[in-house]
Design goal:
By secondary structure, the chain is an alpha/beta fold. The protein is built from six helices and eleven strands. The protein has one domain: Class I glutamine amidotransferase (GATase) domain (Rossmann fold, 3-Layer(aba) Sandwich), CATH 3.40.50.
């Protein structure tokens, strides 16, 4: 029943897999996905970073691809979208300083729309003040931010995801199968509710 219009907010040095895989998967499954970045327009690119787990105390980081944006941040309105996707990587660290990004994130929670965030995407959720009382997974180093924001950190396997109502989160890209499956289930449930209410 894909018909949902999804907004993806990303930025420079977003995690490569956490941006490109959900973007392409959701498109392949029939959803409309608009990928935007503040200060950039459709056709511009963001640099991606590949975060990998190679036996060190934290992830390694390498330069990834150039990911092409297909919509312009200044032209989109959160109200026109059914759901939100927040990839991880380095981007959430600086995107959380943008008042318009924070306002957009809050809209999806205020309206009860589906939201999927992965890895460092929780930094954006914490900054938006939307985690109080919510169960949220994230990259383990983001646990303090989740808990300081009033969230309940889900200490799950790196290949698992967790749903709390309309919020679907996961620790990192190895969780893509579970994270995307749960997110699409939430999307389809929301679309069914909307259809039945019409």
């Amino acid at each position: 029943m894909p018909a949902s219009k999804i907004l993806m907010i990303t930025g420079d040095f977003t995690e490569d897999y956490e941006t490109m895989v959900p973007f392409q998967t959701l498109l392949a499954c029939g959803y409309t996905v608009d990928a935007v970045c503040p200060g950039k327009k459709a056709g511009d690119t963001v640099a991606t970073a590949i975060h990998d787990f190679e036996g060190d105390q934290t992830y390694s980081e390498k330069r990834g691809h150039n990911f092409a944006l297909n919509a312009t941040f200044d032209s989109v309105r959160a109200e026109d979208y059914d759901a939100l996707v927040i990839p991880g990587g380095r981007a959430p660290e600086y995107l959380r300083l943008n008042a318009d990004v924070i306002k957009s994130v809050r809209h999806f929670f205020d309206a009860g729309k589906p939201v999927a965030a992965i890895c460092h995407g929780a930094q954006l959720l914490a900054a938006a003040g939307v985690l109080k009382g919510r169960t949220c997974s994230a990259y383990p180093a983001c646990r303090p931010e989740v808990e300081l924001a009033g969230g309940i950190y889900a200490d799950i396997s790196i290949s698992d995801a967790v749903s709390d109502g309309n919020l679907v989160t996961a620790p990192a890209w190895p969780a893509h199968p579970s994270w995307l499956r749960q997110f699409m289930a939430v999307l389809d449930a929301a679309a069914l509710l909307e259809t039945n209410a019409a």
